[in-house]
Write a structure and sequence with these properties.
Strands 21-20-26-27-18-25-22 form a 7-stranded antiparallel beta sheet, covered by helices on one side. Strands 2-3-1-4-5-6 form a 6-stranded mixed beta sheet, sandwiched between helices. A 6-stranded antiparallel β-barrel has the order 7-8-16-11-10-17. A hairpin with a 3-residue loop joins strand 28 (694-708) and strand 29. Among the domains are: 73-243, P-loop containing nucleotide triphosphate hydrolases (Rossmann fold, 3-Layer(aba) Sandwich), CATH 3.40.50; 249-308 and 327-335 and 548-584, Elongation Factor Tu (Ef-tu), domain 3 (Beta Barrel); 483-513 and 695-775, Elongation Factor Tu (Ef-tu), domain 3 (Beta Barrel); 591-694, Translation factors (Elongation Factor Tu (Ef-tu), domain 3), CATH 2.40.30.10. Helix 5 (135-143) packs parallel to helix 7. By secondary structure, the protein is of the alpha+beta class. The chain has 20 helices and 34 strands. This is Bms1-type G domain-containing protein. Belongs to the TRAFAC class translation factor GTPase superfamily. Bms1-like GTPase family. TSR1 subfamily. Residues 394-404 have a biased composition (Acidic residues).
């Protein structure tokens, strides 16, 4: 029983309650306008909203997947492209391609095209052969393949010395195709024995050899009998094909036929390319890129009747109509107001840098600020701008007064005590500076360019190649180190360079000392935002049914106008084995800018690759020749150090002037060799498009200590003239183990000049901290 002394517990705890809940009983719920269960209803409504949002996302993904499946497997979809690539010389691709076409066509009929329709499988197929030994052709065909089928011979498993079905070319081809981006892959195994047991053993051996080199979803097929081909076609029809992401961003047409139509202008013509439109819709107002020719405008797009329908009824209609002549269903003509111009370079405005006349209030404010400011007259070296003057380090040590007395001439990077007017008439030194610096720039880029092979003997060429290899080895072991010349003063040879206390934290203006020609390239305020906007416009073009837009999967004829006649003749030559590929360009992709690629030297290429050496760049569907400038990839720094060579085993940045592309885009770098096919030199991917990225050329001057005390040392062979020592006096010195010091004074007046160094601790070698120069 509860008595008077029984414990009475609190009905609730208010320690962790909110202030609103403690005073909720004081509020009239009728006057507050909130129902009693409003919080519970809000929670329930939020949960329902989340469930509805998740269901909407699932429905969108399901609809997109269904749309993709219908567009790839439907009767209105483009034919599926199978590219057969042999991995060894024993793999005979020709008979297999013929067997596939005949079997897909449904009989032993005469083949007139690489594209056939199969009513039994309700599928259209295009079979192409990649020529063995031609790396460039294999790479170009892999770019348009829906299924990349590698062909191996079972005889190579026991006839070859190594027992490997992949030879040297096959291994190199696989590495290149992986860098480009592999679509769906398959392997055809030929020359299998009729014995079932031996057949299964050889197939397992081929799978064990090839599985590590190919993707996990790669399928292996025997390709000997009709039953094997029937199994492949049945599975191929239901297979979900994947393709590289960079190819899915742009519409493209692989030519079934290509011909030339004479143009109005001399030396120009109209290239007519017929084929199926793939990946996206194509507007007649878009610019297009013809592989191997360049960027052009479209003069017209004709929608033609499908020459290879799947159903028999459509096939009979075509046979009955006008003896299989070309039937134009619709025609799109570009709108001059909406057509994208073929703009490659920017036209700079010479008056763009002019400023408006200041107002009276601004002039008065500037006058007052100048009066309040303490005027300190600084006398600088000859040819020093105001921006460069900010980099000159004043000597704030205790020995500052002594150093100024030891430098009566005021030469170099210290403050010049003489009036600038005394040096205006002396222009010979300035000319000498420009002469020596230009000569040094050519030497530090990676050695002098090799002379013309026609004017050099065999011994001279071998000596030049040996010198380049030695320079590559020295640069890899001692990066950025250069020798101070004996016959030229260092203050003239290195006049364009400046000393940085920290390469990472020191500021540098990206707009400083730019040449006037740099205004001809294009730049973006925010490249990622521009890319997002361009891809959104392309998505809108796919969704809406425009009057000037060809639909995906339709058979079209593109009229590419103003193509050079000699280039078009090579593309349409009967001996050409590759199809002509016309790809649609996104907005801004015809304009020139500075592209930065993340690049790595290929393992099979052993020769040195120098900066500014001509190389062949394959970027997506594009191919062009460029002279890349290599630099280090600094993640936590906005400045990148130029590299003279592309070294093995690490990634570098290759910067080139090239048409704009939106990443991700793969990069394959080829090198021309006289009398041989181009060989692969490097692989990579597009990293960014940024003309304001700073690339600095860094050099290190070294000297050797002769006498070392506790806090001072005497260093020789860094400079050879007393004036050079005084010129570099403001620049900090450092050792291999991180000790730092300052130049105190010069010792000697001629010959190999010496200098005293004030330091914390003696070390074995001294270097000028960092001398850098902007590279264009």
């Amino acid at each position: 029983m509860a008595g008077a002394r029984s414990q009475v517990n609190k009905p609730h705890k208010t320690r962790f309650a909110s202030k609103a809940s403690r005073h909720s009983h004081k509020i009239d719920k009728v006057r507050s306008g909130k129902p009693a269960g409003s919080h519970r209803a809000a929670v329930k409504g939020a949960r329902a909203a989340r469930l509805q949002h998740s269901k909407a996302i699932r429905d969108q993904k399901r609809a997109a997947l269904l749309k993709e499946k219908r567009s790839s497997n439907g009767s209105s979809s483009a034919p599926r492209v199978i590219v057969l690539c042999g991995l060894s010389s024993s793999a005979n691709v020709g008979p297999l391609a013929e067997d596939l076409l005949i079997f897909a066509a449904g009989g032993d009929e005469k083949l007139t095209s690489n594209t056939v329709a199969s009513p039994a499988y309700k599928l259209r197929t295009t079979v192409l052969q990649a020529p063995y030994g031609d790396l460039t052709s294999c790479m170009e065909l892999a770019k348009v393949a829906d299924l990349l089928a590698f062909v191996v011979s079972a005889n190579s498993l026991y006839n070859s010395d190594s027992g490997n079905p992949i030879d040297e070319f096959g291994s190199q081809c696989l590495s290149v195709l992986r860098a480009v981006g592999l679509p769906s892959t398959a392997v055809f195994i030929r020359d299998l024995p009729s014995d079932t047991k031996s057949k299964q053993e050889l197939k397992k051996a081929a799978v064990s050899f090839l599985s590590p080199e190919l993707p996990e979803d790669c399928r292996f097929y025997a390709a000997e009998t009709k039953d094997d081909l029937h199994m492949f076609m049945r599975l191929f029809k239901e297979q979900h094909l994947s393709s590289p992401h960079w190819r899915n961003q742009r519409p493209y047409v692989m030519s079934e036929e290509a011909c030339i139509k004479p143009g109005d202008s001399m030396g120009l013509c109209t290239l007519l390319v017929s084929g199926y439109l793939r990946a996206h819709n194509l507007s007649v107002n878009q610019l297009v890129h013809v592989s191997g020719a360049g960027d052009f405008q479209l003069g017209q797009i004709d929608i033609l009747k499908d020459p290879c329908p799947v159903s028999e009824r459509k096939n009979s209609d075509v046979m009955d109509s006008d003896d299989n002549q070309i039937q134009i269903i619709d025609t799109f003509v570009p709108d001059p107001l909406n057509q994208e111009p073929l703009l490659v370079e920017n036209i700079p405005d010479p008056l763009a840098g002019e400023q408006t006349w200041p107002t009276e209030a601004e002039m008065e404010e500037a006058y007052e600020s100048n009066k309040q400011r303490k005027v300190v007259k600084r006398k600088l070296p000859r040819g020093t701008s105001e921006y460069q003057a900010a980099w000159i380090v004043d000597d704030t040590d205790d020995e500052g007064d002594d150093s100024q007395n030891d430098n009566p001439d005021g030469a170099g990077m210290v403050i010049d005590e003489k009036d600038h007017s005394e040096h205006d008439s002396d222009s010979s030194d300035i000319d000498a500076v420009s002469h020596f610096t230009e000569k040094f720039d050519q030497e530090t880029i990676g050695g002098s360019e090799m002379g013309d092979d026609e004017n050099l003997t065999k011994e001279q060429i071998e000596e030049d190649i040996k010198r380049i290899k030695e320079s590559n080895a020295d640069d890899e072991e001692f990066p950025d180190e250069v020798e101070t010349p004996l016959d030229v003063p260092a203050r003239k040879r290195f006049a364009k360079y400046r000393g940085l206390k920290s390469f990472r934290t020191s500021s540098w203006d990206p707009k400083e000392s730019l040449p006037p020609e740099y205004a001809r390239i294009f730049a973006f305020d925010k490249f990622t935002r521009t890319q997002k906007h361009v891809l959104a416009k392309r998505a809108e073009l796919d969704e809406e049914s425009s009057k000037d837009c060809a639909r995906i999967g339709s058979y079209v004829m593109l009229h590419v106008k103003n193509v050079p006649t000699d280039v078009a003749s090579k593309l349409c030559h009967p001996s050409r084995r590759l199809p002509v590929v016309v790809s649609g360009l996104l907005e801004h992709e015809s304009k020139i800018s500075v592209l930065h690629f993340s690049i790595k030297k290929h393992d099979s290429y052993e020769a040195p690759i120098r900066s500014k050496e001509p190389l062949i760049f394959n970027v997506g569907f594009r191919q062009f020749t460029a002279r890349p400038l290599f630099s280090s990839d600094n993640i936590n720094c906005n400045k990148h150090k130029m590299e003279r060579f592309l070294h093995h085993g690490r990634f570098s940045i290759a910067s080139v002037y090239a048409p704009i592309s939106f990443p991700p885009v793969p990069l394959i770098v080829l090198k021309n060799i006289d009398g041989q096919q181009p060989v692969i030199a490097a692989v990579g991917t597009l990293k960014s498009v940024d003309p304001d990225q700073i690339i600095l050329k860094k050099i290190v001057l070294t000297g050797y200590p002769q006498r070392v005390s506790k806090l001072k040392a005497m260093v020789r062979y860094m400079f050879h003239h007393p004036e050079d020592v005084r010129w570099f006096k403001p620049v900090e010195l450092w050792t291999k183990h991180g000790k730092r010091g300052r130049i105190k004074e010069t010792v000697g007046t001629h010959g190999f000049d010496e200098m005293h160094i004030q330091q914390q601790r003696p070390a074995a070698r001294y270097r000028v901290h960092e001398l850098v120069q902007t590279s264009f």
